[in-house]
Amino acid sequence: MVSNRKCITRLSRYKNALKRLKALGFIKVFSDNLSDAAGVTPSQVRKDFSLFGITGNKRGGYKVDELIEQIQVILGKNEIQRVILVGAGRIGAALLRYKGFEEGGIRIVSAFDIDPAKYLANDAVPIRPLEEMTQFVRDEKIRVGIITVPDSAAQRIAEIMAAAGIKGILNFAPIQLRGTDEVVINNINLESELENLIYFVNAHSKANSAKCD
Amino acid sequence: MVSNRKCITRLSRYKNALKRLKALGFIKVFSDNLSDAAGVTPSQVRKDFSLFGITGNKRGGYKVDELIEQIQVILGKNEIQRVILVGAGRIGAALLRYKGFEEGGIRIVSAFDIDPAKYLANDAVPIRPLEEMTQFVRDEKIRVGIITVPDSAAQRIAEIMAAAGIKGILNFAPIQLRGTDEVVINNINLESELENLIYFVNAHSKANSAKCD
DNA sequence: ATATTTTTGTGAATAATATGACAATATAAC
DNA sequence: GTTATATTGTCATATTATTCACAAAAATAT
Ligand SMILES: NC(=O)c1ccc[n+]([C@@H]2O[C@H](COP(=O)([O-])OP(=O)(O)OC[C@H]3O[C@@H](n4cnc5c(N)ncnc54)[C@H](O)[C@@H]3O)[C@@H](O)[C@H]2O)c1
Ligand SMILES: NC(=O)c1ccc[n+]([C@@H]2O[C@H](COP(=O)([O-])OP(=O)(O)OC[C@H]3O[C@@H](n4cnc5c(N)ncnc54)[C@H](O)[C@@H]3O)[C@@H](O)[C@H]2O)c1
């Protein structure tokens, strides 16, 4: 098992780049085509592949179709990944209705909320009472959940998810949920992403005005 | 200038942790309180601070208020950061209406779209025709933009933004926009975040079933 | 057939990050 | 005041990630 976040993220990038290259008619690629398309170095590509036991052909590169297939298997894309979401508010609803996940083999099968005004039993993705979540997760053997509730509720929802058997959580609430041996957590903090960007924009403009001295 | 993404992200985390600690009544903190609250090691905290020239008192720790203030200045939170958004669709609308950014000193001052059905001249955050963006950015000296248009339009919007004088872009479209010397880009790919999570959930369950052999 | 070229796969070298260790020093205890 | 104690700030060390370099292998050219 490769336990390097960045490396897995690159794998997603390679997969996306490969799909573009395939659409452009490429049948095979070399590590430097792919690295170009993915914005990394060729040796990074080869090293990553080596880590996952992906092999190509000396002087022949990699067959695009096979490569996509191999990466997809590593990323679990050989089967549809069923996911639930808790908190059908603004951002939750945006995610629920996004078609792109399904195209990538990720299906949000149900949402849950505490607000009865949000319930929608017969939608493409039903929105159900929170109380039904635990049973649903157990019955459907769901392992991945998305949290889009207010920060004050996030920790509690994470605990309910973990107790129900969820093994991975994508959390959008602006609190840093801590993972355990049992549950992997990926915290997305959009304000922090903006702060990060703003820091670099400011640092950059200072560096440039310094250059002008 | 510190040019380490992770380090800036930690700074956001410290800031958030400090605000929580302050709410709990802390007047001063030590590197190990803070590291606990932020989920890093104490030496990481001190190392980061040292990098930014933040100093405390030997045996006295750091005064919470001063520390928050210093970090906020580094992150540009001493002034309101004005930001625009292009693509007032599902995810764009969720971001537009999110109150949390304003609380953190980040204000989305206007959105832009090509679909006249989306225009809303007199909303809290107006949604205007895309054609008005360039002028708006110039007049208002906006430096940061958020892209929430379909992937097919993202590259073009990024170029228009750059030409108008935008220096930093937070991109939600699932294509990897490439930064330049002039423009910093932070790509958020939510599908890739889910793929990442799913990889670790699967890898973990395999590792555990292996343990059971 | 043989030589030349191209490209992989990987171990070694380098670079980037994080942790550890501890001297310096401020505070508190006596 | 003196001693003991706690905590920072930073340099040394360890760990992790990336790039380099090149032998091995396959394809192509001669
Ligand atoms: N909207 C954004 O653009 C945005 C941006 C960054 C972060 N976030 C974060 O995402 C989260 C959701 O934001 P939002 O704007 O969608 O908020 P929202 O208020 O629109 O939606 C929250 C939803 O969660 C539901 N909810 C509340 N408590 C619950 C509970 N205990 N169990 C189940 N459901 C519960 C509410 O009924 C509501 O439907 C927040 O933590 C917010 O900080 C949102
Ligand atoms: N909705 C989600 O949850 C989600 C999740 C992951 C990624 N994304 C990505 O975010 C982006 C937006 O997704 P969405 O679901 O909000 O889509 P959407 O179709 O709801 O919204 C897109 C908006 O962009 C506008 N638009 C299109 N072309 C434009 C142009 N050239 N200039 C200005 N505006 C333009 C459209 O009029 C529309 O309002 C997409 O790239 C999508 O892949 C969305």
In short:
Two copies of one chain form a homodimer. Chain A has helices spanning 5-23, 31-38, 42-51, 64-74, 90-97, 100-103, 133-140, 151-164, 190-211, and strands at residues 28-29, 62-63, 81-86, 106-113, 127-129, 144-147, 168-171, 184-187.
Please describe what this structure looks like.
The structure is a homodimer of 213-residue chains. With 213 residues, chain A is α/β, with parallel strands linked by helices. Chain A has 2 domains: 70 residues, Orthogonal Bundle (Arc Repressor Mutant, subunit A); 112 residues, NAD(P)-binding Rossmann-like Domain (Rossmann fold), CATH 3.40.50.720. In chain A, 49% of the residues lie in helices and 15% in strands. In chain A, the strands form 2 sheets. A 6-stranded parallel β-sheet of chain A has the order 5-4-3-6-7-8. The first copy, chain A, has a two-stranded antiparallel ribbon with strand order 1-2. In chain A, helix 8 links the parallel strand 6 and strand 7. In chain A, helix 1 runs antiparallel to helix 4, helix 2 crosses helix 3 and helix 7 packs across helix 8. The mean pLDDT of chain A is 95. Chains A and B meet through helix 1, helix 5, strand 7 and helix 9 of A and helix 1, helix 5, strand 7 and helix 9 of B. The first copy, chain A, binds a DNA duplex (30 and 30 nucleotides) through helix 3.
